[in-house]
Design brief:
Elements lengths: L6 H7 L1 E4 L5 H19 L6 H14 L1 H11 L3 H5 L4 H10 L4 E11 L24 E6 L9 E6 L2 H7 L19 E5 L6 E4 L5 E4 L6 E10 H6 L15 H6 L12
Antiparallel strand pairs: 1-6, 2-8, 3-6, 3-8, 4-5, 4-7
Helix pairs in contact: 2-4
The structure holds 2-oxoglutaric acid (AKG).
2-oxoglutaric acid binds next to strand 3, strand 7 and strand 8.
Length: about 260
């Protein structure tokens, strides 16, 4: 099991890919559960995961009601709920500096070609966490991804730019115009089953559309319990980027991105 070999990469780039974070047997257990749900809901004799994937686009289009029910049921798969609790995930969280993690949400996402249950998300940041410095997302494919299934695109950029860009006010899932980030380079990620793209809320990222294959992912996000206690209830803090941001402060004014939009 490999975990945060790349924790400095996480610090520098805002994301890292943890290879094999979720074990093949845990992935198999979840896929078997999803297969059982699909057999029951669509009333099909489907021998294995590969056959389900071959059938799914057609099933999804022909049976929208069952498809919706299937997606909803997938969210309840007990095997998916085990992922965030694994020792490997805990280790990563601790390497990042999240010692008291709170699981914020989790969803199983299934992108089927030509179906619209999930929408492709354009360039954005996930600035809806309580504490952007100590929160993160794990994005875990359930099978090896490629151009046919689609993947996840991330922006390899100078984190100063990424963080400073949002200083005019950061709403959740705010769309980012990457042409305004001078050093932006797109990095298209096609991780394998059980790998995890682990990223902080500042990372600019987007869905990478596939061609004709399904894409199955489990996505879970953590906040930090210490922050959670400070900002519960009506006083929920919205994570505003200012020059008081601890990340920028720790690196001094020289790091401030000059091209950031003015308020
Ligand atoms: O899975 C995707 O296509 C996009 C996921 C995403 O943007 C997110 O989890 O914040």
């Amino acid at each position: 099991m490999k975990t945060m070999e790349n924790s400095s990469e996480f610090d520098q780039k805002g994301y890292t890919v943890c290879r094999g974070l979720i074990s093949p047997s845990d992935i198999d257990d979840l896929r078997n559960r999803l297969l059982a749900y699909a057999r029951a809901i669509f009333s099909i004799q489907c021998k294995d995961w590969a056959e389900l994937n071959a059938l799914m686009p057609q099933l999804a289009l022909k049976h929208p009601e069952q498809r919706k029910f299937f997606y909803d049921l997938c969210q309840l798969a007990p095997e998916a709920a085990l992922f965030p609790q694994s020792t490997a995930v805990r280790k990563v969280l601790s390497d990042i500096g999240i010692h008291n993690p709170v699981l914020k949400n989790m969803n199983l996402r299934l992108d089927v070609p030509d179906s619209c249950d999930f929408f492709l998300i354009d360039w954005h940041q996930d600035l809806n966490n309580l504490d952007c410095e100590r929160s993160c997302t794990f994005w875990v494919p359930l099978h090896d991804l490629d151009k046919n299934s689609g993947g996840l695109s991330v922006l390899d950029t100078n984190p100063f730019e990424e963080r400073q860009w949002t200083s005019s006010g950061a709403d959740e899932y705010r769309q980012v115009d990457i042409s305004r980030i001078p050093s932006a380079t797109e990095n298209q990620l096609y991780p394998k089953a059980g790998d995890a793209v682990v990223f902080n809320p500042y990372l600019v990222h987007k869905s990478l559309k596939g061609i004709d294959a399904c894409r199955w992912t489990v996505i879970f996000r953590f906040d930090c319990l210490d922050t959670f206690y400070q900002v519960t209830g009506r006083n929920r803090k919205s994570p505003k980027m200012t020059t008081d941001d601890p990340y920028l402060r720790s690196r001094g004014a020289a790091g401030v991105f000059q091209g950031a939009p003015q308020k």
